[in-house]
Amino acid sequence: MDKKLSMPAESVWGVGPRLWQGLLEWLRDVPIADPVNRRNAPMLQLIAFLLAALPAAAWCYRAFLVDIPWRPGEVTSMVLSLSVICVSAMSFFLIRKGKFEAAAYALLCIFSVTLIPAYLSSGFGAQRFDQPVLAIWLAIAALIVGRLALWLMFLCITVAFFLGIWVDIGRQGEAAALLGDAAFSTAMFLMIAVVLDRSSAALRESFLEARRRGDALDTANQRLSEEMAERERTFAQLVQAQKMEAVGRLASGVAHDFGNVLAVAGGYVHSGLRSDDGVRMRESLIGVDSALARANLMTRRLLSLVHHEDGIEEWFEPGEALKALLPMVRQLMGPEVNVDMELEADLPPVFFDRMQFDLMVLNVAANADHVMPGGGDFTLRARNDGGRFVLDLADTGTGMEAEVLARAFEPFFTTKPRGQGSGLGLSVVQDLLVRAGGSVSAHSDVGIGTTVSMHFASDLADAPDTVPERGR
């Protein structure tokens, strides 16, 4: 039974902070646009609530629980307190509705209205011990409302002081001493007002400066986002242009091959037309079908490069991709260039855009063909570098000097004659690989050749969980 009634100490001690945190969240949840006023709203709500609740509780206690006759002036004091209670409650609800400045002005006005009658009824000396509380109202005026409210509040306090002194002089005499007290108190509150004025001005200037910087930062971020989006669009257009350039190079070779295919098909047709033998005619039709199949295969490969949608990353076996791409590479090269491919047995799968993979190989192959006008060797070498797929594309062309090699990946840098190259091939290769977490490097010797090495990303943390089965 005791166990059921007991409560862990942690639960008991944790209730208070949770309630306080919930109260603060509720006090902060007000529809106020100005960030400074929104930060000050919880404090002003607490002040308004206390000004409404505490005097009400005190006067209820005085009226119903204390059996003492009402003293002169006590009823007047109660009426003034009731006005403070009403205005404070109204201010609390104004803040909840988002009207922060109206609530702050209402509190300051009711305080000012009740301050002067209080000093007129009791005098300066009777209010001496309540004077430190006046500094709080100065702080509220300065920090929450502004400089004008601060100095109006100081003026109201000064008027109340001297009206209270006037009452005390009428009752006690000793004008010089009383005026000295009033002057001293006024000077003290003047210093407090000056400090609050400068402090609040500095705080608001700092906030405005921070806000200006924040707005400037937002503008810069917006401009940067627009520039990044524009760069993405430009890069997509660049990739498309490179793709069209590769298609253009391939098209001439495809046209030549189509001519050969049509010639072969035409030969089979003429052979079949000249023969009356059914077997010979069937063999001719089989030959035509084979030639048409070759033409269809070339067409599909070319169309796959044209119509493939950019930005679709997928798992694929790089060895199989290179085997499928090899005829297009040979098509791209001149007849004097020998194209060879070396594939290691255990190549890791690649998570990359397949069209962009083909485009990178074709770009490097086109550059290699340009530096081997008299023929040579172009080798596609695929290897497994510690679980990372690396593709080396090597040619036996003229090679590059160190100065040219250092700028090989710069956009628009080219050694080709004007109108024969954009200088964007290797730059696009580098951008595509870096975007996918990879890298590219080049090694070149003058008179020996150049090797471009593409290193594909090995970190698969952001890749899909499904990895294709390895080819057997």
Element layout with pairings:
Layout: H1 2-5, H2 9-28, H3 35-64, H4 74-96, H5 100-122, H6 131-145, H7 147-172, H8 175-274, H9 278-307, E1 313-316, H10 318-332, E2 337-343, E3 350-353, H11 354-370, E4 376-385, E5 388-395, H12 402-406, H13 425-435, E6 439-445, E7 449-455
Parallel strand pairs: 2-4
Antiparallel strand pairs: 1-3, 4-5, 5-7, 6-7
Helix pairs in contact: 3-4, 3-5, 4-5, 5-6, 5-7, 6-7, 6-8, 7-8, 8-9, 8-11, 10-11, 11-13
Question: Explain this structure to me?
Answer:
The chain has two domains: 21-222, no CATH class; 316-472, Heat Shock Protein 90, CATH 3.30.565.10. The longest helix has 100 residues, at 175-274. The strands form two sheets. Strands 2-4-5-7-6 form a five-stranded mixed β-sheet, with helices on one face. The chain has helices spanning 2-5, 9-28, 35-64, 74-96, 100-122, 131-145, 147-172, 175-274, 278-307, 318-332, 354-370, 402-406, 425-435; strands spanning 313-316, 337-343, 350-353, 376-385, 388-395, 439-445, 449-455. α6 (131-145) runs antiparallel to α7 (147-172). With 472 residues, the chain is of the alpha+beta class.
